[in-house]
Design goal:
Number of strands: 2
Structural class: mainly alpha
Distance between the termini: 58 Å
Strand content: under 5%
Number of helices: 14
Order of helices and strands: HHHHHHHHHHHHHEEH
Shape: globular
Largest sheet: 2 strands, antiparallel
Helix content: 55-70%
Radius of gyration: 21 Å
Strand order of the largest sheet: 1-2
Number of domains: 2
Amino acid sequence: MIDAWTRLVAWLGDNTVLPFLRLLHLDGLSGDPREIAAALLVAALQIAIIGLLFRPLETWKPAERWTDRRLTRVDRQYTMWMLLGIFPLFTYLVLTPISHLFGGGGDADGGAAPTFGLAAWLPALRAHPFLLFAVYYLAYDLVYYAMHRLQHALPWWWALHSMHHSQRQMSCWTNDRGTLIDGFLQSMVLSTVGVVMGVGPDQFAWLMLLGELGQNFSHTNTRVGFGPLFERIFVDPTFHRLHHMRADDRHPGLHNCNYGQVLSIWDQLFGTALYGMAPRPTGVGDPTVDADNHHGLIGLHWVAMYRFWRVVRRRSGWRLGEVSFGPDYAPVPVVHGAAHGHAEAWEQAAATSEL
């Protein structure tokens, strides 16, 4: 099976990807075109699993029943855009050269011993590739958890990441709903961790696939769960849906929970796990961010990027804390109730905030 995969990657890289890169005059800018071929095949596999497995789950046992799935269309478009276009090219032009620069991945296929990373520091792990991969993934998932918490706490990053949370109809396609800058930052953080650990490009692609499929599943509009034991280890849709729930005035801060990507153990270790609540409506209460739902693929991206540009230039955009966006996109401390029509409280917060 591994040989068949290798042959398929080689054929696609030599006969499809390389001619396309030559057409764009990009073939001399980076490494082996087979890396982008592998990324495309992994993306195609991911899309097939989403469409053939996760999407039917939403019909079989939905968390919410929608009479109109119009809002999910843009998320599906983002998934195709990111997985079949932007991320494979980004991997080819940026991530692969960085990994090669630091000598990562030398142990991936039984080649030269790595000169840098986890396998170089602990050579015994080279004899146990599955254990090595598991250690890679534990570190990868922990870094994702920490990064995800920062996305919610740093106002300018929340200006970007809030686009992901603005979706009122969270579905199996929602995971890839995000801006290019947010995707670039996430990729650079995670790839830096991969480089430090010595993860090769192929291994990194499979780390990404495992993480992305886990997130595609956890975003599905379904009540499917892992049960009382395994939900304490892995993120399931009922767990992650609470992370996307709209803020509730009666329980301020309740929505600041369940940040894990695939493993829920980090939420338990750091006190952010929430279990046992019935499915709640998803989205955001901040009217500035909720307005994302009125835009299509390009417009949605534009308004999120504009929001980021207006916030990142302010001092308050760099102060950690949960915020909404007030007049002129100024970050203001969240006043629970403002987004539900309590305009006076929202305006008071904006007026008293140090911009």
